[in-house]
Amino acid sequence: MSPDAGAALQARLAGLRAVLFDLDGTLIDSAPDLAGAANELRASRGLPPLDYALLRPMVGAGARGMLAVSLQVTPAHAEFEPLRVDFLARYEARMLQETGLFPDVPPLLEALERAAMPWGIVTNKAERFALPVTAGLGLAARAGAVIGGDTTPHAKPHPAPLLEAARRLGVAPGQCAYVGDDERDIVAGRAAGMLTVAAAWGYLGQGEPVEAWGADFIVQTPEALLKSLQLA
């Protein structure tokens, strides 16, 4: 990093006023329930369960990703929509059965709150799922904003959901950091003019490696996030 770029980054850190997070794979580990719904769907069609290690990386891609890996069905397939509806119904029935916060996330959020740093959630999970999940895990009452994939007319990687979260927090987008575990999170954060942080503890998908996403920071743990943002 050049001296000028380093100075610009330090200036952005000094002006940080809020932190926004992706949900699945960043704050919460929802993979067990999403993988469970996928294997329930396979069982209903007489297929054996897939190994969890095959399903976990695709969690960030939602129903589309889970159907692709569990049944090799893409949106172009004639049965995609009924299978999507079936999968989502199965997930909704169990979405808090095994899902929980990543172990180091509670201290992270507590540290932000002690520092009087507002935080919010921006996820591509539809409000139908995002609102009960965040409420059930005790996040909704603490977050300054919970933005779902259908809260605005566009989902990530479009910046609209992030801009709406900043608006609700009353903070300029350039004073926000956005933390996520998928490349589209970093694309959305950059488009919104936010500081971007890749959460390497998350699912990361099966696309480009995290080092190629162009994030301002890559962090391995929630504790390292606090240090990167100069909040610890």
Automatic annotation (TrEMBL):
Keywords: Carbohydrate metabolism, Hydrolase, Magnesium, Metal-binding. Pathway: Organic acid metabolism; glycolate biosynthesis; glycolate from 2-phosphoglycolate: step 1/1. InterPro entries: HAD-like_hydrolase_sf, HAD-like_sf, HAD-SF_hydro_IA, HAD_sf, PGP-like_dom2, PGPase_prok. Its EC number is 3.1.3.18. The keyword Iron does not apply. Its cofactor is Mg(2+). PANTHER family: PHOSPHOGLYCOLATE PHOSPHATASE. This is phosphoglycolate phosphatase. It comes from Roseateles subflavus. The lineage of its organism: Bacteria, Pseudomonadati, Pseudomonadota, Betaproteobacteria, Burkholderiales.
